[in-house]
Amino acid sequence: MTLRKQVKYNAKRCLCNSWGKAVAISLMGVAIYLLFAIIEMIANLLLTLPAQTSYLIPGISDSWLLSFAISVVMAIGSFLLLVPLNLGITSWYYSLSDGISEDILNIFCFFANRRMFFRSLYLTLNIGVRVLLTSLLYLIVPGAGIGFSIWLLSTAPFAGSIFAGSLALTFSAMLFLLMLGFLLVRLQKYFLARYYLLDTTTTVHKAIRNSIHATKSVRDEIFLFKLSFLGWGIASLILLPILYTSAYYSMSAMLYARFLMEQDKRSNSIVLVGDVNSDDGIEEGSTAAEDLSQTKPFESCSPSPAANSDVSVEEPTISVSLNQEQGEKE
Fold first, then answer.
1. CA 97 to centroid of chain Cα atoms
2. pTM of the full predicted structure?
3. Are 172 and 146 in contact (CB under 8 A)?
């Protein structure tokens, strides 16, 4: 059985007695997101102003500015609520992976911890900026090629521009898809950051560094792991399957993350004997046998004649008692 199948199998076993709580948590997250969307929609309907030009920005109506301001406020509110909530949900699944099914209200635990509340927000913003800059680095060239191709096809400034634009558009689109694939694989280096942040002693920068180090050689495998849930994601376009898919993926991702974190921890704990500093009396490249030869020899439990006379050591009586038992049997 492959690692992905084993992780998914264990995820189902962890959820076997907690499906009700997992589904309730998924519904709670969806409900909070929909609540902000509904509030924004109602506010836009109730506070719509007549279409007149704004005094602040010429050419833009006051109603559009007010609608934009409401959208910004709702986006900030959902960010402040959903980001710590998602980290709390991750903590709930972490406890479930240890066999502890906590109360669903524990997903709000980080709202009571000011330090973890702001760390969750900072982690999301930090990773968001990193993702944006990395995306620009990978996609700016093919994106510019697509834009230039569309300009050629729409304006046709010279003879043969249609052919050149079609050729450039095809090449740019292929390059865009290729670079997008490399980008998605590279972004998996942040996969473990929020799992490392669950340790309250771990800072945001340390969590990101640990995630980058632990995923250095397995980023393509992480991407394939996420891609294996594509079928469930398509099925989740219907409302009901998302209740199963969200819990199933969250539990599977938690177990896979813990496996990668433990694997990285074990690889960092390996100490090579041959790399001991020569200042300790062992030359570099020496074998384990040479290192063990420097240790103190094992001492017998019976006192030697040269032992200090001031220290009294009781003689072992096991052999004597055995001889006495044999004599009694005879």
1. 15
2. 0.74
3. yes
